Amino acid sequence: MRIPSNTFLQLHRADGHLDCTAYGRLLQCCSNGRLLRQGQQLHARLVLHSVIPDNFLASKLINFYAKLNCFPEARRVFDGIQRRNIFSWNALLMGYTVQGRFRDTLRLFSSLLTCESGDLKPDGITVSCALKALSTLSSRSRLARDIHGFVVCRGLDFDIFVMNGLITFYSRCNKLSSARKLFDRIPKRDIVTWNSMIAGYSQSGYYEECKELYREMLGLIELKPDEVTAVSILQACGHSKDLLLGMEVHQLLVNNGVEMDMSLCNALVGFYAKCGSLDYAMELFKDMEEKDEFTYGSVISGYMDEGFVEEGMSIFRQIETPSLSTWNAVISGLTQNNHQEKILDLLCELLASGLEPNPVTLSSILPTCSHLSNLKGVKEIHAFSIKRSYHQNIYVATSIIDAYAKLGLLGRARQVFDRSKDRSLIIWTAIISAYSAHGDVHTALALFSEMLNNRIKPDDVTFTAVLAACAHTGMVAEAWKIYDSLSQNHDIEPTVEHCACMVDAMSRAKRLSEAADFIRKMPIEPSAKVWGALLNGASVSGDVDIGKFACDHLFKIEPENTGNYVIMANLYAQAGRWEEADMIREKMNCIGLKKTAGSSWVESKGALHSFISKDESGDVNEKICTLLGDMLGSTREE
Predict the structure, then answer these.
(1) Which of 118, 165, 315, 426 is the most buried (most CB within 10 A)?
(2) Would you give the distance in Å from CA 54 to the centre of its chain?
């Protein structure tokens, strides 16, 4: 964009005596055209002719500099205003917010609130900028409450822009009930209001509420869903595997002739991939002229989720320079599919590419290290996370706790927990699970009690960990107390995992009849875990009848699980019922099942070696002896 030549002619003839309105128009032209040099010349002319900008002209200068990301200059103009009004404050607030300088936005907003001038009255624009900053930073909830109170006191709760900002903030802070209350109070909602609430539900995992609100929106006459709505609802459909509704959304987009930009295409690809409709996902993927890291990540994750590891790796290898998020998708997929032996090699590739792992990478790799009993790797990742200040990331800290616990270093796991600043539910659950897995029921229960005293609300996963701790030691009375508190005190419906823990607790306490009766009365269909717990209890107690009762169900649920056949055959053998034992083994042979051989991994000289139980081939024996010699020579106390 160019400034019209007649404006420059007017400027020269005026010899600096243009009024503020004329200067304002010129600055607006420079701002619209991003003409930094010309705008600076205009500013210099103002200084040359000793023109002191009023609030109007100063706001134009601030807008100009902010748009071109020249914030030191914008701030100097702002500081030079003798008597600022709300328009000049808003100019700088909007500049900071539009350019993503949200901490500066909040600092300036706080300064405005403490300003002594009684003439200043923050308006809807002022508050909207502050709320945008708060929503993005997802912090300072106290300031948000103050702003909300300010909005009500000043009567700004009728400003649709302000209310939309509050809904977005509460949604991003996972305070969906507060967001919904505001949404319901707005008499005339615009498209942003609906999209803010729908996006809030979708991003916070409230997929059914998201879809319900979308259906309500479809019934409106004055408003129709747009591309932003579609992205949110497609994400919800993908995560909830609602293929039918997602396809309806896709058809609506096609019928309305909506232009498919990258964000919408990515949402569609991600939706079909998450629903397992990989043919549809790949068709859209191939038709896309431009693809970004999200596109590739969605397809790779889709293949990995369905167990098609090679196909996912093939897509990954097509990318010339994969982004870190794409590497993370592959590593996560390999972990999910138990391809741990490939992950460490992939990590070496990632480092060789010049990229550096982030918290997502670390939390995906740590389970592999613990699975392979690689204590050295866990320690190195822990050290790296401290060096990069990732150790306070809740997911990294949780993964480190879990890894140390699985490697038997419960003391180190506890140290990580004790040093964590953010004691959210996930990290409490991790440390309780660690003590539970080690059979330290008293510490697990003490931590659970401490968590409740800290007003942390447990979820179903936390209760599974606590009940598992009781099950390990056969503490039936304590298990019943916790199980009953699920619905009575915490409004949580018992899950099949909770029921499995209860059966395990009773079985270990040799109260098999009580456990069997519990299963018969279960409000939900018993899973293999439930019947497996009963079978294990029967095996320990030598109760053939209860064992057969459990196995009859297990053979139907998981007919190819060799472990169930082996346990039942051994149970018959222990009871001297050899004929039944042979029948079980014969049944196992008839369907082509074999007992899975155990395997071990050893890391030596930077390479990972795998050994299968009872493999007595000469090459393997020689390899084992060589490795043992190397390891004994370098053994040191950890």
Answers:
(1) 165
(2) 48
What is the spatial distance between Cα 110 and Cα 112, in angstroms, rounded to a whole number?
5
63-89: pLDDT as tens digits: 888 899 999 998 998 988 888 888 889
- Higher pLDDT, residue 618 or 402: 402
How confident is the model at residue 157, as a pLDDT?
A: 75
8 Å CB contact between 588 and 581: no
Q: How far is it, in rounded angstroms, from Cα 492 to Cα 520?
A: 21
- Is the pLDDT at 190 greater than 70, yes or no? yes
Q: Determine the residue type at 67.
A: K
Q: What is the pLDDT of residues 571-580, one digit of tens each?
A: 889 888 898 8
Cα–Cα distance list, 533 to 77, 497, 575 (Å)? 73, 11, 20
Q: What is the DSSP letter of 194?
A: H
- CA 123 to CA 87: how far, in whole Å? 9
CB 270 within 8 A of CB 233: no
The secondary structure of 111-161 as a DSSP string is HHHT---TT----HHHHHHHHHHHHHHT--HHHHHHHHHHHHHTTGGG-HH
Burial of 162 (0-12, 13-18, 19+ CB in 10 A): buried
Give the separation between CA 47 and CA 40, rounded to whole angstroms.
Answer: 11
State the chain's mean pLDDT as an integer: 86
Nearest to 382 by CA among 431, 373, 365, 16: 365
Report whether 196 contacts 228 (CB < 8 A): no
DSSP H/E element including 604? strand 599-604
Candidates 382, 428, 426; CA nearest to 403 is 382
Please count the other Cβ atoms lying within 10 Å of the Cβ belonging to residue 530. 27
> What's the token pair of residue 254?
């096609």
412 vs 258: CA distance, rounded Å: 55
* pLDDT of residue 210 exceeding 80: yes
Whole-Å CA distances, 236 to 86, 100, 203, 205, 333: 41, 27, 8, 8, 21
Domain ranges of the chain: 494-596, 599-634
Residue 401 has pLDDT above 90, yes or no: yes
457: DSSP letter: P
- 429 sits in which H/E element: helix 425-437
Q: How far is CA 406 from CA 369, 384, 423, 425, in A?
A: 10, 20, 21, 20
Torsional class of 100: left (φ above 0), alpha (ψ -120 to 50), beta (otherwise): left
Environment class of residue 234 by beta-carbon count within 10 Å: exposed (0-12), middle (13-18) or buried (19+)?
buried
Question: Using the 8-state DSSP alphabet, how is residue 612 labeled?
Answer: E
What is 494-596's CATH number?
A: 1.25.40.10
DSSP designation for 598? P
Rounded CA-CA distance 168/196 in Å is 6
